[in-house]
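Sample 1 of the test manifest.
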Amino acid sequence: MELDSLYQEVILDHYKKPHHKGLPTGEIQVHHVNPNCGDEITLSLAIRDGKVEDLVWDGVGCSISQASASIMSELVSGKTVAEAQVALKEFTEMMQSKGNFLGNEEILEDAVALAGVSKFPARVKCALLGWMAFKDAAIQNGAEL
Amino acid sequence: MKSTLDVAAIKSDFPIFRKPMRGGKRLVFLDSGATSQKPIQVMDAERHFYSTQNAAVHRGSYYLAEQASEAYEGARASVAQFLQVKSEEIIFTKSATESLNLLAVSFERSNGGLGIKAGDEIVVSELEHHANLLPWQQLAKRTGAVLKWFEMNPDGSLDLSRIDEVITPKCKVVAITHQSNVLGSVPNLGPIIDAAHAVGAVFVLDSCQSVPHQPINIKELDIDFLTFSGHKALGPTGIGVLWGRAELLDLMEPFLYGGSMIETVTMTDATWAPSPKRFEAGVPNMAQAVGLAAALDYLSTVGLANIHSWEMQLTEYALKGLQAIDGVSVVGPQGLANRGGVISFTVDGLHPHDVGQVMDQYGVAVRTGHHCAWPLIRKLGLTGTTRASFYLYNDFSDVDVLLESVQGARDYFRKR
């Protein structure tokens, strides 16, 4: 079923038990919304010694947006800003590929499970919501992305 | 009286139903609240205009320009007849959204009774679509007027218990929907319209969700302005209607400035043409106006009373079916009283986007999210709903697929 390529097991796992989800406590908090559907995310993080740390997010939204935020936070936490940037670029490219680019698992880890989302144009923004919030927060914390 | 529509015959007029959806499924289109599908008669009317009558209206002295002007003004006359009003009271806009913005901006610029200034009050309701909230909200911000509103009860009706506090002698405009685009609920407008007129305010009816689906009697409603969009009424996109009482339109300043809307122009000043031209700057959406007239003809031939009766039968069947599914909650009115053919619902533990995504696998087209009525959704304590809306090309088998797909959505996530 085409639907199973969208709702991979790993996505539903992250949706049911999201990682790094809680009340963001950082001084700089970014708030992103998807105005088409009302999905919202608040996120904060710290950059220490060039590494992404203390990433916490909270939000409401569909399984894709919530799972993607969870997978992203797991992936970039503890990574250097440069590594996170590579992952962000890889993920964005995958999302814009309309199903033609499945992503490098060594870079994206669990996030390759979201490759199927790119075949559903209406859902791409859901998947990108958390990643764009991360990018914004990293830049506001002085990272050069 | 219960009417039965010959849906098979109606469907055959709509080419889109021949297009297979994902996985080869037939289209079960339950999103007419967002936009309607178009019959071939509407497409033919536009093609006929472009093929035989196309020229800029109200300008050239040549044969084709006369033909175009006649077709465009004929469309205006058709809309006027459909609404049982005078032709010069019908203003073509690009959408209902533009109609409402036209009113808000014109009131801001107008002097006298209709003019909005600091301290005046504007009244809306929590049921409003963003298109009938933001023009008034922003008008209030620009002018220093005060925006007030009727609150919504959990069943989708309006709380009128403090009507005298909401509508006071400072009130200049009351703008409310005829039917909620989210819940399908129909507010009790009679007392509101009376209260508005008692303090000398004008009443604006957003009838996007009603005019395409039921007979409307403007005289009986006793309203001052009415707006609807063509594309929700089987018509083309890019055409909307604003109706206003002639004596009020005469007092109003223009919205857009440009060609066609003037009486005289010098380098430093201008005077305005009478309505409707005053409000139709530039070459208008001519083919779309002609297409809308064809759409209203189509609706009149089937009969608005028949369409409404049919939609309510489908709604009753769908309501009962949805209410019987474990884990599904209908939001808003639970029965047929004070509602139209729009149903919002939620599925326990599931986000509407995910519900809609699974329903799509069954060929079902529904709207998910906040439906451009974010304050209403917040008031209900929700992040969104899934909405099914019915029209003349739907039948009971469509409702069966709807129910099957909703169960399918619930079960898809339950078992995994």
